[in-house]
Predict the 3D structure of the following.
Amino acid sequence: MPTSAIYSAKVEAGDGFAAPAALAGLPGWTVFKQQQTEIYEITHNLNLNDPALDMQVVATSMTPGVSVVVESVDANSFRVSAWTSQLAAAETDFMFIAHC
C-alpha cells in the first residue's frame, strides 16, 4: 500500500443484522452481524497483500463491562466480537480505528 490511511466508524449493536449495511463515511465498507451472535464482519475494498502487516485494527465497546475483540484481519475484511467478563456474547455499540 503506497500511503498510510486511517479509517474509523461507529457500529450500532443491530447494524447489519438482516443484511450487510453500509458504514457511514466509509464508501465501499459494510458491516454484517452473524445470526444471533455478537460477531461482526466488517468488509472493505482495500485488497490487502499481507493483512497481518498491512492493517492494524483497534475496537472499543460503548457499553461498560463488555469487551470487544478483533478476531481476524483478512485481505478484504476483519472480524470483531463482543463479550462479557463471563465470556458470554453481549450486545453493544462499538467503535473501531483501522490503520493501513
The longest helix spans residues 51-54. The radius of gyration is 13 Å. Helices lie at 51-54.
